[in-house]
Amino acid sequence: MAAEPPPSLSYRTTGSTCLHPLSELLGIPLDQVNFVTCQLFALFAAFWFRSYLSPGKTSPDVRHAFATIFGIYFVIFCFGWYSVHLFVLVLMCYGIMVTASASNVHRYSFFVAMGYLTICHISRIYIFHYGILTTDFSGPLMIVTQKITTLAFQVHDGLGRKAEDLSTEQHRLAVKAKPSFLEYVSYLLNFMSVIAGPCNNFKEYIAFIEGRHIHMKLLEVNWKEKGFHSLPEPSPTTFPVTCLVDDWFVHKANFLTRLCYLYVVMQASKPKYYFAWTLADAVNNAAGFGFSGVDKNGNFCWDLLSNLNIWKIETATSFKMYLENWNIQTATWLKRVCYERVPWYPTVLTFILSALWHGVYPGYYFTFLTGILVTLAARTVRNNYRHYFLSSKALKVFYDIVTWAVTQLAVSYTVAPFVMLAVEPTISLYKQNDVSAFPAAVPGCNSLCVHWRRKASEAGTSFLPGHQPLSPSRPSPRCCQRTFLDGPSGPSSS
Fold first, then answer.
1. For residue 451, is pLDDT > 80?
2. Is it the case that residue 493 has pLDDT exceeding 60?
3. What percent of the chain has pLDDT above 70?
4. pLDDT band at 440, cuts 50/70/90?
5. Residue 38 confidence (pLDDT) above 50
6. Helix, coil or strand: residue 471
7. DSSP 312-367
């Protein structure tokens, strides 16, 4: 199992110690106290930023400078000298942005940013010995890497590609001129997203700083024609994972107990993400940056930078629905820089990039490799069976209940190595025969569905009783018409 980090490292891996008395009083690690303090301070700063440094009262340069200075201070306060990694990466990639041609800027930026991030991930293994602090310095580094690569690809789209070669979204977000140094560092290091994200688009950020963001979003829906006459106002471990691989738990606990505990452990690991991402969303909304337009019912939406939808996550009835509502901005980044651009195996390569971006802990790769199999299996089963349960409301309810339970357990099983990090506990979990058959059944499930469909089609009968046979006017599901590794409509369509 993974070794615990030496206690002496606690002060080396955090920033300011001025809140240490509060940390001891609350019994909460100092790095977590620093993180929450900065995010709460950022929330109040965002209100002040919107009220007293609004675009109508001050220039864009002043807004850029304020957002950058506060962001840099927060990073230093939380991470101390480790924040140097962040500043070095930003400066290196700005050098690439200025000197590289538009046809190559995205390549150089991507490999330098991902390479530097990977080196830092590797160093953490040797420094922390698999220990992960809640707010270790790689968190902001991962966010900055997303922004650097997003901007580089958008500059490439705007200056290095023909308009007719771009998709609608790429054309909308393309950057037609390279940013100034102040714009670049403000986009990457602003206080609203430097600590916990999420990633956003450069063009929308500049529009926000210059005061054009809300008006731009409203123009997209012809807001005055729909009766709107004013701008909108804006509207967060008790169960140790190590028990999963304890000898007593593995050999004495029954299958149902292990399964339930696995689910509970994974549920217990979610609140910290819910809190951090919801608070980050509130900071951006308080500053006025979260406005995304008007929905079909005429309501103002403030979800431009939302990173999750808790209700849809907890009620997801498919792997696809779960992933579409978890870490939304990272999924969008993966789609824009990888899935839409690679010529082959987009699903597999997107999962690999996601794993590499998260780090080099072996558990991450077990999770994402398992995720590929689960994604393909879930898509196959859905395409082959779902339509049989749509004939009545009762069958549909039954289908939803079963798929909800299977989805939650599948996610718990898939994510467990991500939490355990190391090889030994992951292999120990997989050796539990009751559970390890799950990923092994994935290719068989796919093959069996295709085999049954072909037999039914050849015989002109249905392979399930009580249903209509296949016919030329009723095409077979997509899984019979495409290869096993063909991708879906997006990286989160799992």
1. no
2. no
3. 76
4. very low
5. yes
6. strand
7. HHHT--SHHHHHHTBSHHHHHHHIIIIITT-SS-HHHHHHHHHHHHH-S-HHHHHH
221 in Cβ contact with 297 (< 8 Å): no
Instruction: Round to whole Å and give the CA distance between 488 and 2.
Output: 36
**What residues form DSSP beta bridges with 293?**
301
Q: Which of 239, 245, 19 is nearest to 135 (CA)?
A: 19
The Cα–Cα gap between 314 and 303 comes to 19
Residue 249 has pLDDT above 90, yes or no: no
Active site amino acids: 327, 358
Q: Each residue of 76-115: pLDDT tens digit?
A: 999 888 899 999 999 999 999 999 999 999 999 999 999 9
Question: Is 113 within 8 Å of 142 (Cβ atoms)?
Answer: no
State the Cα–Cα distance between residues 427 and 365, nearest whole angstrom: 13
Query: Within 13 A of 466's CA, how many CA atoms are on the CB side?
Result: 4
Q: What is the spatial distance between Cα 238 and Cα 305, in angstroms, rounded to a whole number?
A: 30
pLDDT at 314: 93
Angle at the Cα of 38 from the Cα atoms of 264 and 123, rounded to 5 degrees: 70
Strands, E assignment, 256-303: 293-294, 300-301
* Per-residue pLDDT tens over the stretch 458-491: 555 444 444 444 443 434 333 333 333 333 344 4
The residue that leads in pLDDT, 444 or 61, is: 61
In this predicted structure, what is the pLDDT of residue 130?
52
What's the rounded mean pLDDT across residues 234-245? 57
Write the burial class of residue 146 (CB in 10 Å: 0-12 exposed, 13-18 middle, 19+ buried): buried
* Bridge partners of residue 301, in order along the sequence: 293
- The CB-based long-range contact list for 348-357 (8 Å cut-off, 24+ gap) reads 348/372, 348/485, 350/487, 350/491, 351/375, 351/491, 354/330, 354/491, 356/114, 356/118, 357/114, 357/117, 357/142, 357/145, 357/146, 357/330
| pLDDT, position 236 | 34
Closest among 183, 179, 181, 160 to 170, alpha carbons compared: 160
CA 296 to CA 448: how far, in whole Å? 42
Q: Does the pLDDT of residue 245 top 90, yes or no?
A: no
Longest dimension (CA), the chain: 76
CA 158 to CA 237: how far, in whole Å?
46
Cα gap 99→240, rounded to integer Å: 49
Determine the Cα–Cα distance for residues 197 and 139; give it in Å rounded to an integer. Answer: 9
Whether 151 and 32 have beta carbons less than 8 Å apart is answered as no
If residue 108 lies in a helix (H) or strand (E), which one and from where to where? helix 105-128
The β-bridge partners of 294 are 300
- Helix (H) or strand (E) holding 264, with range, is helix 255-268
